[in-house]
Description:
Shape: elongated
Structural class: alpha/beta
Distance between the termini: 22 Å
Mean pLDDT: 86
Low-confidence stretches: 311-316, 318-324, 331-345
Number of helices: 11
Strand content: 15-25%
Oligomer: single chain
Largest sheet: 6 strands, parallel
Radius of gyration: 22 Å
Amino acid sequence: MRVIRGLHNxxxxxxxxxxxIGNFDGVHRGHQAILQQCREHAARWSVPLTVVVFEPQPRxxxxxxxxxxxxxxxxxxxxxxxxxxxxQVLVLPFNDALRSLTGRxxxxxxxxxxxxxxxxxxxxxxRFGCDRRGDFALLADVGREQGFxxxxxxxxxxxxxxxxxxxxxxxLACGNFSAAARLLGRPYSLHGRVVRDQQLGRTIxxxxxxxxxxxxxxxxxxxxxxxAELENGERHPAVANVGFRPTVGSDRPTLxxxxxxxxxxxxxxxMTVFPCVRLRGEVKFDGLEALxxxxxxxxxxxxxxxxxxxxxQDYSLPLASAPLGREAISxxxxxxxxxxxxxxx
Length: 345
């Protein structure tokens, strides 16, 4: 799969495609349905499927720290888009130059001169351009004029509610990881590479693997019972802290993971962490001894939880097989905000 950063890196070999545009944060089952819709057209045209995303996401550009937390980093988003059929991902830098384009300029520069799009799939309330005139109707008009098709996304629902990134975030914030997994089509996870840190955990007998997080709003915060997956595919029960470690002080967020009953060097390895249950929020303790005592209680609770649920010997996740409930794909739309989030969220 090709990842193309900016239109200036687009080449003649990349042109001619079926495309869709959005944030695709989380690449949830609603997004997956859009990608399937696009794949059908790409096969008909015998052209690649191109997904256009923005970095930073538009709401991050305008709202900064007040923007909704991300469900997936760009690296993970690209991997998931590839897994669900995208052959090209065009990453457009969302900056003053891009936001200053009118709706027609965006169509001309990105879709026609850049992508040479054959067919476009977007939400029917998709808006773009500094003049706010870029909408589905304009796309359809220009498509008829220039000879490319424009089609709105199909609605994907679970339990009679639209699947959206906002809905996934809400479930994660409530600690309902099983329900979030049903909407994502997989267990929610955090990813990173283990780095050397202050190594304070070793001084109190609780060595941790530290994975730095991006300085962005956190989807999760607190202490969790988790399953940690190593590069070799091994899975281990663990306890993780997501946040700023108030007892020792930190100016940037960290994912700190203690693997239960594990000994080994993890520095430099990539790790995937699957939260299973929230144990507590972050607390600033009076000192390391008080922190150590609480960590021991957290470990006991995590062991109890992970022993009580049904897991395989390789610690496969119990929530991965959660029932999917009622689900449907249709062409009907509910609220405009939710429809936009289903594609662009």
